[in-house]
Specification:
The chain has one domain. With about 40 residues, the chain is an all-alpha fold. It is globular. It contains three helices and no strands. This is LITAF domain-containing protein.
Length: about 40
């Protein structure tokens, strides 16, 4: 459950348009945050 959840959150971070919880995604995926939103 935990790994699947993290995987889903990572996908959401890569595609923030489809992520209902924008701030949560940035916190859950700092690498994506740096790459996509720099």
């Amino acid at each position: 459950e935990g790994e699947l959840y993290i995987g889903v959150r990572s996908i959401g971070c890569l595609m923030p348009i489809f992520n209902n919880c924008y701030a949560e995604a940035l916190k859950a995926c700092p690498v994506c945050n740096r790459t996509v939103f720099h």
